[in-house]
Amino acid sequence: MIIPSNATHPDSWFSGTGPDEDVVVSSRVRLSRNIDGYPFPASLTPEESDEVRRKVERALEASPTVFRAPQLGGVATLERRVLVERNLLSSPPAAFPNSSVYVSSDEGLALVLNEQDHVRIVSLQAGNRLEAAYDAADRLDGELEDQLGYAVSLRWGYLSSEIANSGTAMRVSAMLHLPALTELGELAEVVESNFPPEVGLKRFPDADGRSRAAMFLLSNKVTLGLSERSLIDRLEDCLVMLVHYERKARERLLGERSEEVNSAVKAAFARLSNVKELSDEELFELLSLMRFGIASGLSSRISLKDVTKLFFIGQRSHVIRLISEADKSDMDIDEELVNKRRAKLVRETLDRV
Questions:
Q1: What single-letter DSSP state applies at residue 35?
Q2: 109, exposed or middle or buried, with CB in 10 Å at 0-12, 13-18, 19+?
Q3: Where are the extended beta strands (E) located within 133-210?
Q4: Distance in angstroms (rounded) separating the CA atoms of residues 37 and 45
């Protein structure tokens, strides 16, 4: 079902909790699909693009999942950047200005229309829930496939505009907070010694491509030659391993440098409780310390869920939307104003808990 609304829900998947949430921030599954008989989006005529849109919308109307309709002609620039910051989208606004995004009422599912592929299904869950994320994506995929008719090859699997996505055309990923392994300089050795070649780990960037403090993305490197189940199993094995090593590293860090760690966590709380101006880079660094402190039992002033939420709603486009609901397509807002509003948001959150 599609409802006529383009407003992003004030909360999202990051407002929930999940298994291993001290280390695993989120689980994500993305499926890329194309409709048989149509060129890939880059080669669609305007008429064909409209046909694809109508087909997908009819299929979504028949789905029991409630989706919010995008603005006519696509999602506004600011709103799209918000969705990128929430990890529901991967592409910046300028890359596909005529694409559309349909987001479920709880923001656990997104359907992206006419970007690299005709359809991309994104499923997100808080914590270590790869299986649940996959089940939700697969369920919607099955509903759509019955009505759309996907382009599939016996040799290459699901056909995609990107060769690297052929086969299952599935990307499985988990966002991880690994402050102890990062601080101790042991992360590279853990990955090199234990990871299979089809799984990789990299720094997780924000909407502007900058790395966030101690945030990493675990994901599959290949989609061809392995089944969907095999990809999920490999990612889950690596997740279990990283959770184990990160928790052990935290124990050692607290044992070897207890006073230093306690002081750093307290300083982070004090800074954020009184800050008047705050850049996004400083926010992520301080929240990383807070998150580590809460997960390690050094503080109970705020919940892990609330700190994780601040990681997302403290990003630039979220703050700009707080300043003004109008579409700031050129993003030409004074950074000092953004930094002051971000600081106020953090102080208000800490005052409420």
A1: B
A2: buried
A3: 152-153, 157-158, 170-177, 199-205
A4: 13
User: Counting beta carbons within 10 angstroms of the beta carbon of residue 202, is it exposed (0 to 12), middle (13 to 18) or buried (19 or more)?
Assistant: exposed
Residues linked to residue 125 through DSSP beta bridges, in sequence order = 27
Kind plus residue range of the DSSP H or E element containing 74: none
The closest alpha carbon to 317, from 76, 66, 82, 74, belongs to 82
Both tokens assigned to 251: 């124990």
Closest C-alpha to 312, from 179, 203, 161, 175: 175
Q: Residue ranges of the domains in the chain?
A: 2-252, 258-352
Q: How far is 80 from 47, CA to CA, in rounded Å?
A: 24
The answer to whether 119 and 33 have CB atoms below 8 angstroms apart is yes
State pLDDT tens for residues 68-83: 876 544 456 778 888 8
Amino acid in position 338 = V
State how far the Cα of 168 lies from the Cα of 226, in Å rounded to an integer: 8
Sign of CA dihedral 293, 133, 31, 58: negative
CB 292 within 8 A of CB 179: yes
Cα–Cα distance for residue pair 110/135, rounded to 1 Å: 14
Position 341, amino acid: R
Residues 42, 149 contacting (CB under 8 angstroms): no
pTM: 0.88
d(CA 314, CA 344): 10
Fold of 2-252: Creatine Kinase; Chain A, domain 2 (3.30.590)
Q: For residue range 276-312, list pLDDT tens digits in order.
A: 999 988 999 999 999 999 998 887 778 889 999 999 9
